[in-house]
Structure formats: structure tokens, C-alpha cells
Amino acid sequence: MEFQGALERLHAIDKECRHLERAVAVLQWDMETFLPEKGVEERAEQLALLEGIAHERSISTEAGRLLLELGSTHENPQGDEKLPALERDFLKVFRRVYDKKLKLPVDFVSAQAKAEGLSQAAWVAARRDNNFSAFLPHLVKMIDFSRQRAIYWGFVDNPYDGLLDIYEPGMSASDIDAVFTPLRERLSSLLKKIAGQKRPDCSFLDQDFDMETQARFSLELMKKLGFDSSRGRLDVSAHPFTTTLGPDDVRITSRYLPRQLQSGIFATIHESGHAFYEMGFPQSIRGSILADGASMGIHESQSRLWENVIGRSLSFWKAMFPSLVEYFPDELSKTGVEIFYRAINLVEPSLIRIEADEVSYSLHVILRFCLERELFSGVLDPAELPSAWRKKMKEFLGIEPETDAQGVLQDVHWSIGSFGYFPSYALGNLYGLQFWEKLVKDVSDADELISQGNFAPIRSWLNDNIHSWGRRLDPQDLLKTVTGSNLSAEPFLGYIESKFSTIYGS
Amino acid sequence: MEFQGALERLHAIDKECRHLERAVAVLQWDMETFLPEKGVEERAEQLALLEGIAHERSISTEAGRLLLELGSTHENPQGDEKLPALERDFLKVFRRVYDKKLKLPVDFVSAQAKAEGLSQAAWVAARRDNNFSAFLPHLVKMIDFSRQRAIYWGFVDNPYDGLLDIYEPGMSASDIDAVFTPLRERLSSLLKKIAGQKRPDCSFLDQDFDMETQARFSLELMKKLGFDSSRGRLDVSAHPFTTTLGPDDVRITSRYLPRQLQSGIFATIHESGHAFYEMGFPQSIRGSILADGASMGIHESQSRLWENVIGRSLSFWKAMFPSLVEYFPDELSKTGVEIFYRAINLVEPSLIRIEADEVSYSLHVILRFCLERELFSGVLDPAELPSAWRKKMKEFLGIEPETDAQGVLQDVHWSIGSFGYFPSYALGNLYGLQFWEKLVKDVSDADELISQGNFAPIRSWLNDNIHSWGRRLDPQDLLKTVTGSNLSAEPFLGYIESKFSTIYGS
Q1: Do B248 and A53 touch (CB under 8 A)?
Q2: Contact status, residue B199 vs residue B249, Cβ threshold 8 Å
Q3: Bridge partner residues of A243 (DSSP)
Q4: In this complex, do A42 and B249 lie within 8 Å of one another by their Cβ atoms?
Q5: Distance (Å, rounded) from C-alpha A316 to C-alpha A266?
Q6: How far is residue A226's CA from residue B258's CA, in Å, rounded to a whole number?
Q7: Distance of alpha carbon B441 from alpha carbon B350, whole angstroms
Q8: Min distance B2 CA to chain A CA atoms (Å)
Q9: Closest chain B residue to A246 measured between Cα atoms?
Q10: What are B58-68's pLDDT values in tens digits?
Q11: What is the ipTM of this complex?
Q12: What is the sign, positive or negative, of the torsion defined by CA atoms of B174, B178, B183, B188?
């Protein structure tokens, strides 16, 4: 075949780029888990060097020439029509990443990285001191850098669309708005309704749960979900995450708090959901740029399905609670599974996104989406963010933070210029329930299987229908291919309204 | 200063090379400690790529040009005389490493690496199956590659000298022979004498010592020795090792066997000795090629001093035994410290080097040195190695292996072409006691300090006198600078004869 040589060479370059990215991931994983306190400075230098080398290789002129030889251009990224579908998907994604990287001037990237470092440090201090105005100049810089990045990349209507495209390829702010508007209205109204109901008993959670025992339970839980320990690990870090160090080396972390048993459990389940995705890419795309999630939102759909739809269901705890009680007999043997189930599904408006329940979580996200949009359209002055934040909190959740530390300063994302990232979290909820609706049609006894602790059929379905695509399809195409439908908030809202009206009565 | 620009640039290149080497060390450390079983293949590919990048950078033509600009040539490695002493040492070492790497053709290095991989795998199988002849063709290849390497590097008398120079710069086989000959004679004779004495009671060691408790004791021991946990870690691996991931990130590993309490303890002390060296390089050479040990032998002098001279002394256990008994009250509370001391100093000829006591250890090493010398001078045919091994074992230690697995096949070194490495182990013993003789003059109450568990003055002395030099001096120059003497076996022999005649009576 005429393209064979060029294809093989491009695959070899791709493989080297992935190896370098994985090496970076090893150094980062180690930094979050085992690095001695004083090793941080040196590690940052090692990482900067390796990331620089990885970047250089991924935008080599050789790769650019090979893409052209294979017919892949900015306008026709998939390349020559005679190529097999898999290769055309490979070229599409390689070209997209290549263009995005190449369009940013080297000086711009290094100035941005430097400013990000300073900005994140300033954010840490500002949150600690509850001092938004000390952070404001950095925030303004981050917005400027992000706007400039969007200009380099190009966009149709608003620079914000250019930023969203990194996390959710093909999605614009108005696409997202179309589903977020009904989502916000119905979740806000449900939240108000629940506020009038009796609060479930959560007192039994306010005990000291030994952290090592929690870690041992998490490990068992992860294995029961089907995590293959010969291809991954569970460790501890300050913030739970999933990282891929190789096709057969996917690592998750969790963290255990003595008086918050549920925190570690659901972190472990959530990250396991991410890990199943990363472990589930097929042999045909192993070690290639296609062996990745379709988008941030699709990735979140996997983690949130496991954490919430499966992990916070009554059926799940019918299977798992006896084992949890074995780990904590003194603390839990007097608690019934129904009580436990209601406690882990407590709904209560709260100030902090990452502690939010299933009903209010998406509202926290939509709030950020609205503010990001207004920042980039120029409607909102960054200096006005704290008051805009409080106003929206009142409107969406009915509560207001007393301090900016508990408000606009709570998340790291903006301090490192990750504008456009937040929507993925709520999109993950929507995608997840659209997938789930299809899954329960295909795997008819899903709920029964869960209550037996038999997750293999569910894992298989997710693997066959979603994971096996890797990054070949854009999120909306994947959604359509799997479910036959376009993006919609209905399945998620139907699930939420039904679940919580049962728990809280209606 | 006229050379300033060139010096700064060479230091920047050096720093990048060290960063890459450290990144490789992170990936290797992870491979030995935490890598999931199925991640090995991918990790090997990541490592090959990173090592290749590190190699390319370290022999860049820019570095070569800068060395010349600074007056550093093969004949005059230290460069221009107007440069400060520290910079001249830097140039000397950079030039030496640069030349050694550059002299090996790229094709040769990759052919050698491939052959090494096959040879090591063949060795694993041959040792398992006790089948020397299956390994022989690989061994012959490894000898050929090593001889060729020595030719590329250059040597005066014998290619073996060219190989030794990698591990002990400036040492020839005849230099080593001059100290190994009296060492062998007197150790052999001491060993025979001890064989006639009463064997100490070691029965109490034949109990199950819980491995997690051993690990906790090792951690405490390491901290008591003075290991700064904010600059390093202790983990578990199949074979104990020390590795430097950064100037403030030095990691050691140990391994615990249920019925061999002493094995994990002395591995931890040994590796701590290596770690103190690596943690002890001064700010002036931080992150540079000079921040390394003077040689393999000097490195071993540090680990063996801590393991044997300090760690196997009665004073040491007077300080530490009460704590060990607290960890193992059921197993040890009936054992006195004197009994313990005699048991951990059991002398008995044995077949396996890494299990040998202080008296016979060096004999195992000298045996290998003699055989290596004969192999490279052509006196010994590799096919005759098993019988030569048995003959020498009989002569040096008075025992013979029944199988080659317990004889010539026991060590990995030859299978990966590391000829010339073994002597460093015994040289470490000699250097160590020469240093120690000086140390006890300067720190007059060393033994008393040890019995109080106060190691800070000893660590300080080693740091000020040895570690602070890094790699600036060659081993013989360092020895002369620190002790005023040339290499000699007398201090070590005096120590050994005195210690063991006390334990065994004489």
C-alpha cells in the first residue's frame, strides 16, 4: 500500500510521544504519592525538562510532513479516503493535537507556564488568607492568557468556545447552555422541595473510622468492582486522581478521613470508574494517541456512573454493606443498610462543590459555567466575581458563602487557567445517565446483578460500547452511536427525581 | 572572566543530563517497588527511550566544543590552568565520562544492550536449571563485548585494566593484586582457625519474625542512624538497593524474610550507609556530575562501615537491642545482647557470596577477581570456569559447591558483562577500615558514642572528610587525602583478626 511507510513512521513517532507522556505521568504520580518533602523543587525541574522534550517531539517537522503525505490537513484531518477507518481516526486525532500544540508560539507557552506557577501559588495564599484582591491580578492574567490561547486556536463566536473545545471537542457554549438551563431549573426546584422534608439520620457517620481499615476496605471494594491489580494500583494522595503510566499500568488514589467514612469509599469508586475506561482500550489502539478518553465529560460519565448510579444505590449496598460492617463492627453493626443508604444520599445545599450531593453538584458546575461565559464575553469584570458568585449561589442553591475562601476561591482551576473545564463535570452526569438508560435495556437485570455484587456484565457492556472506541469518536458522535440520541438532560433528571422522591417522599 | 559563558553553558548541559538520569532513576525505582506485574514490558520501552535521549544529550557536539573551548582534552582533561580548582575537577570528570561514552560506537552499544538482555535471561534460566553449558555461549559473548569495550576505551597492559577503570578509576589489576594477596592468605588462615572453635548459639534466630514488624523496626533504625526522611524513603524490593532521584530525594530499599531477622536489618543499615554518602554532597556541586561517589569501592566503604564496623559491633547493639526486643518481645526477651551479638557475627564458610560473613566475604570476591583476570589474559577458557570455580572455592574457603547454580552461576554480574565490578566490594572493606582508623583518632570516643546511639559525630566526620568531596578526587587520591596513606589491607585485617579472636577466643 502506498502510504504504508509514512503511516508506520507516524505510528512510531506517536508511540515515542506516548512513552514520554507516560514517563511524565510516572514522575507526577510519584510526586503526589511518595516523593519526600524536600524533593519537590528538583522534581519540578525534571518535569519541566521532560515535558519540554515531549512537546518538541510531538510537534516535530517530520510528523508534520508525514501528516501531509497521508493527506491530513487542518481542513481534512482524517487524511486520504483510501485509508482504513481506524487510520483515518488516528490521523484526525493526531492532526488535531498537533495543530493545537503547533499554533501556540514557544515563547507564549513558556510565559504562560511561568505565570501559571505564580498564579497557583498566589491562589493558595489568597484562599488561606481569604484575600480575593491579592489573587485578582493573577486571575486577570490567566483570563488574558486563555483568551489569547483561544485566539491562536481559533473559534467561531466567542473565545470561550475555543477553550471548551479542548475538554469537549465539538461542543460550544450555546450547545451546553441548551441542556444546562432545564437542568438548573429542575434541580433548583427539587432542592427546594427536599429542604422541606425530614433530614435522614447521619449521626452514625460521626465516629472515628480507623484510616488503615478504611484503606483495606477500599482495596477490597476496588477488587470487587473488578479492578485488575496486575494492571494497576491504589495508593493515597491529598486529592484523589487516576493516571495512566502505561496500557497495563493504571493507578488510582484515594484519601481517608477519620470522621468521613463515605469520602474515601466514594473517591475509590469514582476513580475506579475512570480506571476501567483507561484499562478498557482495545489492542488495536494500544499505546497510541487513540488510547484515551473521548473527552473530559465522557471520562466523568464513567466515574460518576460507578460512584453515583451504581455506588450510591441501595442495591449496591445490599451487596457491600455486610463486608463494610465486618471491617467496622463496633461502629456499624447497629446500623441497617437502609439507614446507611439514606445517609450517604443526604441532600443539603452546601458551599463547596467537591462535597456536594448528587442533586446540588451540577448546580455548582452550572454556576461556574455561567460566570466563565460572562468573563469571556466581557459582561463580567473579574473584580466583580466575588459578588457575582454570591448572587448566583443564592439564586441556584439558596445559600451564600460568608467568605471568598468558601466561595470564588475554593477551586484550583481558574488559578491555572483551566477555563472551560468545569462544564465537563455536569456533562458527565448527563452522558452517564444516557448511557445507563441504554445499558439497562441491554443488560436487563442490571439492578439485580448489582445487588448480587456481580459487576462483570456491566463492566463488559461499558467496555464493548464505550471504552472500546477510545478517542476515535468525538463525544457527541459517541453518544449518538451508543444511545441513538443527542445530548439531553432528561435521563439524568428522570433518574434524580425518581431516586430522591423515593428517599425523601414526595 | 573569559571562560564564563562556556562554563555556564556546560553546567547547564550537565544539569539537563543529570535531570534525565534522575528521571530514569524514578522509572527504575518504581519498577523495583510498585510497578504492577503487567506493566513491565511498557516500562522497559519507556526506559530504553529515556536512556537513549539521556545518552544523546550527554555526548552532544556542543558539549564537546565547550570542553575544547575550556582547554579540556583527553590528555589534559582538567582544562585551562587559570580555572578554579572546582571547575577543573568538574571538567576532568565531565571529560572522562564524555570520552568513555563517545568512544563506543552507537551500533556497538545497541548490539551490546541487546546481547545483554538475552544473556541475562539465559543466565536466569541456566541458574534455575543448573545448566552452565546453556549459558556458556552468552558468557563468551559478554567477554568478547567487554574485551572490545576495553579496546575502544584503551588500556596499558591488559583489557581487564580498561574494565576496572570504570569502577575504580586509576586502579590496575596488579595494584589490586598487591593488596588482595595478603588479604586472601590471612583471611583463609583465620577462617581455618575459627572452624576449630565452638559455634555460637544461633537457635533463637530460627523463629518467625513478623515481616511488617521487621519493616517498622527498620524504619526506626534508619531514623536513629540519622536518615533524614524529608530527603528520602525506605521501601521494599526483591534486592535491596539505594538510588538517587534528586539531591534531596535518596531512596533505599530493604527486604524482610520471616526466618532471617538479621537479613533485613543489615540490608537497611548497609543501604543507609550508601544513602548518607549520596545525601552528603555539598551545595557547591549540587545537581552536577561531581555529586556522585568517587568510585564503586569508596561507595561500598561507606555502606560496609555502617553495616559491619558499626552495625555488627557490640556497642551498637547495646544501644539498639532493647528497642529490637520491644518489637519482638515474645521472640527475643529471653535473649541477651551478647548472645545476639555473637549470633549475628557467626563465621562459617558458605557457598553464596551475598550470605557470607565478614571473614569469608572478601574471599568470595578475590576468587571472582582471580577468575576474571585469568579470563581476560586468556589463561582460562570460559568453558573451564565451573571446575576452576570449584578448585578455588576449595583452596580459599575449604568447601565446594555441589551444583553450578550454587557456584559459578550465583551472581548476575557476568551475565550482563559487568567484569571488573566485583573487586570494588572487597576494596570497600579495605578503604572503610583505613577511613575508620583515621575517624577513631579524630573522634576519640567513637565506640562510646555508638553505645549511646549517638551517631551524629560519626556522620559529621564522614561527611566532612569523604562525602564533601563528591567525585572530585579519584579513589586513591581521596584515600591519601583523608588518611595520608596508600591502599593497604592492614587496617581491615587488624580489625577482623582482633574482633573475631575476641568472639571465638584464640
Answers
A1: no
A2: no
A3: A251
A4: yes
A5: 12
A6: 32
A7: 35
A8: 29
A9: B42
A10: 999 999 999 99
A11: 0.93
A12: positive
Computed on alpha carbons and rounded to an integer, the radius of gyration of chain B in Å comes to 23
CA A376 to chain centre: 22
Residues above pLDDT 90, as percent of chain A: 96
* Residue recorded with cell 556522620: B459
pLDDT score of B233 more than 70 = yes
Q: Which residues contact B146 (CB under 8 A, 6 or more apart)?
A: B159, B163, B376, B417, B419
Chain B residues in contact with A43 (beta carbon < 8 A)? 245-246, 249
Q: Min CA distance, B11 vs chain A (Å)?
A: 15
Strands A232-236 and A242-246 turn out to be unpaired
The mean pLDDT of A387-397, rounded to a whole number, is 97
The 10s digit of each residue's pLDDT in B3-46 is 999 999 999 999 999 999 999 999 999 999 999 999 999 999 99
Angle between helices A132-153 and A106-129 (to 10 degrees): 150
SS (H, E, C) A364-420: HHHHHHHHHHHHHHCCCCHHHHHHHHHHHHHHHHCCCCCCCCCCCCCCCHHHHCCCC
Amino acid present at A120: Q
Do residues A103 and A94 touch, judged by C-beta distance below 8 A? no
DSSP annotation of B232: E
How far apart CA B200 and CA B198 sit, in angstroms, is 6
* The Cα angle at residue A192 between residues A187 and A197, in degrees rounded to 5: 120
pTM of the shown model: 0.94
Put simply, the answer to whether A49 touches B246 (Cβ < 8 Å) is no
**Res. B506: pLDDT tops 80:** no
Q: How far is CA A277 from CA A26, A309, A455, A467, in A?
A: 19, 16, 15, 5
Q: Which of B13, B27, B34 should we substitute to test contact with A (largest number of A Cβ atoms within 10 Å)?
A: B34
* CB A66 within 8 Å of CB A94: no
> What's the pLDDT tens digit per position in B404-416?
999 999 999 999 9
Residues in chain A, total: 506
Name the residue facing A36 among B41, B233, B287 (closest C-beta): B233
Gap from A15 CA to chain B (nearest CA, Å) = 10
Residue B138 is placed in which grid cell?
A: 552468552
- The Cα A413–Cα B272 span in angstroms is 41
- Rounded Cα–Cα distance for residues A26 and A244 (Å): 8
- Give percent helix, percent strand, percent coil of chain A, each to the nearest 5: 70, 5, 30
Closest C-alpha among B17, B57, B13, B50 to residue A26: B50
Half-sphere exposure of B204 (CA within 13 A, CB side): 20
Residues in chain B, how many?
506
* Interatomic CA distance for residues A158 and B233, integer angstroms: 50
DSSP per-residue codes, A89-138: HHHHHHHHHHHHHHTS-HHHHHHHHHHHHHHHHHHHHHHHHT-HHHHHHH
- Find, among A344, A353, A365, the residue nearest to A499 by Cα: A344
B34 is written with which cell numbers?
A: 510498585
